[in-house]
Amino acid sequence: MHNRDDRTVIQVEKPPVSVRRGGAFALPRLFCLQRSRVRPLLLAMLAFAGLVGQTAVHAAAWASEDQLVTVGVLTITSKEEARARWSPTADYLSRQVEGARFEIQPLFLQEIARAVRQNELDFVHLQPLQFVQLRRKHDVTALATRVVDDAGDGVTRFGSVIVRHRDHTDIDDVRDLRGAIVAGVAPNALGAWILGVEEIERAGLSPRDDILPLFVGLPMTNVLGAVAAGRADAGIVRADVLQQALSAGRFESDAFVVLNPSRQPGYPHRVSTRLVPEWPFAATSRADARLSEQVKSALLNLPGDAKAMRDAGLVSWSEPTSYDGLEALADKWLTPPQTIGDWLRANWWTVPVILSVLFAVLFGQQWRARRQLAERERERRAALNAMREAVVTLDAEGRIQFMNPAAQQLLTPDMPPERAMGRQLLDAFALLLRHDQHDFSIGGLYEHLSREGWVQYSVVLAHGHPRRILDLNAVRMDRGNGEAIRDVLVSMTDVTELDQASRQLAFRATHDDLTGVFNRRSFIDLVDRRLAPGGRTPGGILLWVDLDHFHLVNEGSSHRMGDEILRRMASYLSVVLPANTPLGRLGDDEFGIFLSDAMAPPQEDWPSHVLTAIREFRMDDDGSALRITASIGARNLPDDGSLDAATALQEAESACAMAKHLGGNRLVTYRESESERRLRQADYAELNRLKEALEDDHFVLHGQEIRPLASNCDGPWLEILLRLKGRDGRYESPGTMIELAERFNHMPRVDRWVIRNAFRTLKGQLEEATTPPARLTINLSGQSLKDDELASYVREELNRNRVEPHWICFEITETAAIANFDQALELIARLRELGCQVALDDFGSGLLSFDFLRRLQPDIVKIDGRLVCDLGSDPVAAVIVESIHSVARVMGAKTVGEWVENEETRARLHHLGVDFAQGYLFHHPVPLEEYLVDVRAGCDG
Q1: Rg, the chain, Cα only
Q2: At residue 534, does pLDDT exceed 60?
Q3: 267 burial class (0-12, 13-18, 19+ CB within 10 angstroms)?
Q4: Using an 8 Å Cβ cutoff, are 858 and 839 in contact?
Q5: How far apart are CA 593 and CA 450, in angstroms?
Q6: Cα–Cα distance measured from residue 171 to residue 175, given in angstroms and rounded to the nearest whole number
Q7: What are 322-381's pLDDT values in tens digits?
Q8: If we measure between CA atoms, which residue out of 655, 847, 647, 618 comes closest to residue 743?
Q9: Digit-coded pLDDT (tens) for 628-640
């Protein structure tokens, strides 16, 4: 027995008998039978009666079931979200339409079009452009138009706005978007893209050639975020989405400017585009007229406060509005790609033509192949001869088989081209390696080609003047595949001018344009390398030279004269000082000199020599000798490498300032007190200890639990703390090291060490398809907020250790957020894009206002422990904590009370509604790995 649609077919030896719902059996006509067949006929009739009875039972049961009605819903997010949004509407229709059971089928744009073409859907809810396409081709009828709540009024139309940021003042009109980056949700999004690019095209621009699209995906506020962050010059969003985002306070009220704004009658917002009807609910040709009328009546009478309305985000359903006039727009922007079948149906006549041409091509292929092979060699030689680069081909032994004219120009004068043919490459060309670290023999060249298939050398042509520098590239022309080399192509490019230009660019990047000595940055870097442990010349003297009254020269003579004095002085000092003495220009009329311990006579005498030499400097100015004096500050450098160049320069500059204060034309040496020296050496030793701890993993990660106070909070969380393991095996706080790391800008390196090792430790305790023993919160320093590569580093470590981003929360202190607000906003956004959470630590300890808190939008707000400790004794502290919690709750953020050390404080936090608490009352910090092992063991037990 086979079920097909609404009938049951019973198969017997005779033709089938059909049973329809509510109908009777149609018995086959009986013809005259012979008496010998009566008994078999009776048996067949009894069997037939049994089958009829069984079929009638199944037909009655089948007839009692509700009819399944499929509603295709266009989804622009995820199918799960669309099913959850529209299932209440399906349940409502199932209750209102007797004998029918409605089911939601979420589909993407191309899926819903295919389902309608294949007659798989009874009803559809889709965007207007796709509706008019399907209406024209597949008899789809609109039953109702959805009504949305926009600014308190129900509207059945919508439009888009093209916005730019208020600071982007060079864009005042849609026509100004030429060459701009324009953000949108997706290329097939009606309200968020198509209407906008239609206006851009109407303004005379090409959406394909004149703008750069940037598709950021849903939600649509991502477009506004891209414009606000400067990643896009403009963006296209629905007008109501812009208004809702501004009303919700997600952006400042004047953050965006609408391009080409206009007001449309009956629509509450300014728009940059035309208005189009809202999405229709439509019936396909598969739904009969009676069912369509029942569905339409049910939708139009759906109460506004019903769950179906709330979940769908609608106000009501209205009589279908007119969708006429949208066909051209739909065909232009939503035309699906043509399939091979469509093309063959439209161009069937081309098949025999193509086959005929193919046969003709195959017939003439052999003749053409022979002709092409004959011409290919001529063309190759002509192309090689026309090249400006020198080209040589070699055989399996490295002998020259071909040279183009450019290669012939590189031969030595006593080597004519005809004599060079058949000789080995290095015998015919006088070439020398610029850097003698490669085997430049033919054997070494071919051995490298056998492994890599390509090799490059920098060589010098060893004849002619000036010497010419060549880039030599050799590549195999055969297939390789482990076989012996048969043919090699060698090209040689003259890069002499490029090399000289590169040297000049490198020189200009490190030297002062006016004087030709080192610029400030290069001079500091050079001194740092000299002073570093293991450097070439530890110790020495650093001089800061400031020409006295130099501004009078510029004012009394001219700037040209001042520039000439600086050039002459730099050249003069270069001659006076020993060769290779570092000399740099540190300011307008200031020079730096590094005197090493290896100088002769002893470097202690050189500061006075420099001062005397400057006193003796003379320069003619209109027949008179111009004299120059200078104030010099000297800083004796320790030979233990405990002083960096920036600090030494600062101290030399202060000594120079003292020399100028005393009247100039003198030398002042910086004097460091014994206590300052000991303190500096102690700081340097501690900083070296920090570097050693990072390199040798002497740090140990600890963790302290953050316990939930509310029943609806997931926990526990674990704050990662840094401890240093001493030689006695005890753990100590690295507070002094952290202070030094902040002073010397080493905190980004410390933060990366913590992130890497925290993820690695968490990975060691993970199991497949399980949650971690605890979620981790990791502190970030203010210096790390300026690290543009930190978010990329976090993503790499997450992927490397297979750690889910929502298991991690990064803490940023309030004071660091104040000092680096723009960087904090950018980093928070990028961490959130990865899926991590962000906490604002020590909130209430600084000057951060609630407005800054609103703009930062953290996931967690950690209330400063000093406020929490004062809850029992200071009513003002209680009010502040309650206010912070209230603001965080409105923002959707959780709150954490820090420094909870007694039951009374915990009870007060719980009474105020604070979500989490952290402190010694609950948990003392323990090694992270030990904690995770214990928690995992407890869970397994």
Answers
A1: 42
A2: no
A3: buried
A4: yes
A5: 53
A6: 8
A7: 998 888 888 887 765 555 665 666 576 777 888 888 878 887 887 777 777 777 767 777
A8: 647
A9: 899 999 988 877 6
User: Residue 625 and residue 879: Cα distance in Å, rounded?
Assistant: 77
CA atoms within 13 A on the CB side of 68: 10
Enter the tokens of residue 598.
Answer: 């290896």
**What is the token pair recorded at 890?**
């409105």
Of 398, 422, 426, 393, nearest to 411 by C-alpha is: 426
What's the pTM?
0.39
Rounding to the nearest 10 degrees, give the CA dihedral for residues 43, 45, 51, 57: -130
- The residue-averaged pLDDT of 235-244 equals 91
Question: In this prediction, what percent of the chain has a pLDDT beyond 70?
Answer: 84
CA angle 278, 279, 282 (to 5 degrees): 135
Reading the block at residue 419, the tokens are 């004599």
Q: How many CB atoms sit inside 10 A of residue 6's CB? A: 12
Tokens read off for 379: 């063309």
- Average pLDDT (484-507) is 85
**Which two tokens mark 592?**
């730096």
Residue 72 has pLDDT above 70, yes or no: yes
Nearest-CA neighbor of 797 among 751, 837, 759? 759
- Using CA atoms, how far apart are residues 663 and 730, in angstroms rounded to an integer? 57
Distance CA(554)–CA(562), nearest Å, equals 6
- Measured distance CA(829)–CA(628) in Å, rounded: 57
pLDDT of residue 327: 83
Closest CA to 540 of 633, 608, 603, 611: 603
Alpha-carbon distance 758 to 749, whole Å? 14
The rounded distance, in Å, linking the Cα atoms of 703 and 722 is: 9
Helices (DSSP H) in 301-349: which residue ranges? 307-312, 327-334, 340-346
What is the dihedral angle through the alpha carbons of 224, 230, 232, 234, rounded to the nearest 10 degrees?
A: 60
Distance from C-alpha of 290 to C-alpha of 725, rounded to nearest angstrom: 81
Q: Nearest-5° angle of CA 563, CA 565, CA 568?
A: 110
- What is the distance between the terminal CA atoms of the chain, rounded to a whole angstrom? 56
For 525-640, where are the E strands, in sequence order?
540-547, 583-585, 590-595, 618-621, 624-627, 630-637
Q: What phi and psi values does residue 575 have, to the nearest 5 degrees? A: -80, -40
Q: Is the pLDDT of residue 30 over 50?
A: no
Q: What pLDDT, on the 0 to 100 scale, is given for residue 467? A: 78
pLDDT digits (tens, 9 = 90+) for 458-489: 888 877 777 788 888 999 887 766 678 888 99
At residue 440's C-alpha, the angle toward residues 389 and 407, to 5°, is 20
Helix (H) or strand (E) run with residue 615 in it: helix 606-615
CA distance 466 to 140: 82
In our burial notation (b when 16+ CB lie closer than 10 A, e otherwise), range 55-75 reads beeebeeeeeeeeebbbbbbb
E strand residue ranges, 239-321: 256-258, 262-263, 270-271, 276-277, 280-283, 316-318
